[in-house]
Amino acid sequence: MNEGWFSKVVPVAVGVLGDIRHVSNARQANDLLANHWPGAGTRKHLDAKRACLAAVNGMTTVEDARETFVEAAREARILIE
């Protein structure tokens, strides 16, 4: 398994205080999606989990995983744009 480095970090606000995290790879995104996601269980959330795990395992491109993660973060209103 690899880290699945993104070409550009994805800044998100997480936690009660909205701490900013700079997600730089699919492994970090997958951890956030699995363990710290607000409102988990939506279609975009599940798609992002699948895509990030697939990118870590070399089954899809890292940029596809990044794009899917960004859409899920936007839906969850944690993406910092």
UniProtKB/TrEMBL annotation:
Q: Name one Pfam family in it.
A: DUF982
What InterPro entries is this protein classified in? DUF982
Name of the protein in question: DUF982 domain-containing protein
Tell me which species this is from. Answer: Mesorhizobium hungaricum
